[in-house]
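Support request, priority: normal
Reporter: lab tech (M.K.)
Component: structure prediction queue

Hi team, I submitted a job for Phosphatidylserine decarboxylase proenzyme from Mucilaginibacter dorajii yesterday, and the status page still shows it as pending. I've pasted the exact input below so you can check whether something in the sequence is tripping the parser. The sequence length should be 284 residues. Please let me know if I need to resubmit or if it's stuck on your end.
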Amino acid sequence: MTFHKEGYTSLALTVLVIFVLNALVQFYLPQAHVLKWIIYILSGFLFLVIVQFFRSPFFDITTSETTVLCPADGKVVVIEETDETEFLKDRRIQLSVFMSPVNVHVNRNPIAGVVSYFKYHKGKYLVAWHPKSSTENERTTICVQNSEGVSVLFRQIAGALARRIVWYVKEGDIVEQGQQFGFIKFGSRVDVFLPLGTKILVNIGDVVKGGRTVLAELPSALSDVTAKPAAKVMPVNDPEPTVIANESHQQELPLVIDHPEVEKPVKKAAPARKPAAKPKKDKE
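Reply from support: The job had stalled in the queue. We restarted it manually and it finished. Here are the results:
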């Protein structure tokens, strides 16, 4: 267990307030023992609240391409089909987790992949469980696409007390499943938008843990692709080779002659020469 870096400023301010308050009581009311004990108890309680809120526990994370990890500690408050209109613009299963002030407010990537979309939105500070908080409150929208081409979109949503959202990712980043992608101070909410066909493994009202609870199992990317008809193979007009079958089966391979042999021209024999005539002798 460690103290999260986002709580350093809050812890310093808390310690300063506690020190000043106790110094004033000690200096101006040294005899008010009951009041001093009340101040001590309140100071200790405030210090513990800040420490527990910004705690960052260590634990082993089991990763998988087919599972969706919970992005934060809290309680499941929404599981329903809805339209995602900001980036994906399709029908999705929305799963929302509400974080109370006593939960760990570290936010973790539900899947591994590439950040294909990121945007920060200014907005209102309605209570986190309000139906319109997902679209009207201050929020960030992040979409990660895994190695199979399946996209999961999720949002950090500020609540009535949470007035600061922190994020550590940007578009184009390669992220790991379970890795921290942000932090929300005090009460807040995280929405996850999953593809239709995803197998949901939690129910409304379940208490979940960020980076440890498996929310769902993703469908394979191959099942989302409609089978396409095989391409037609056009016949080739090249002449087929002549095949001479081996009827005696003495050889396993047939003899293939690609081109018929061209008959060679036969040379004609030269005409025979007549013997020369002998000269006649003169008679004496």
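The domain at 67-222 is CATH 2.70.70.10 (Glucose Permease (Domain IIA)). The first helix runs from residue 8 to 28. Let us know if anything else looks off. Ticket resolved.
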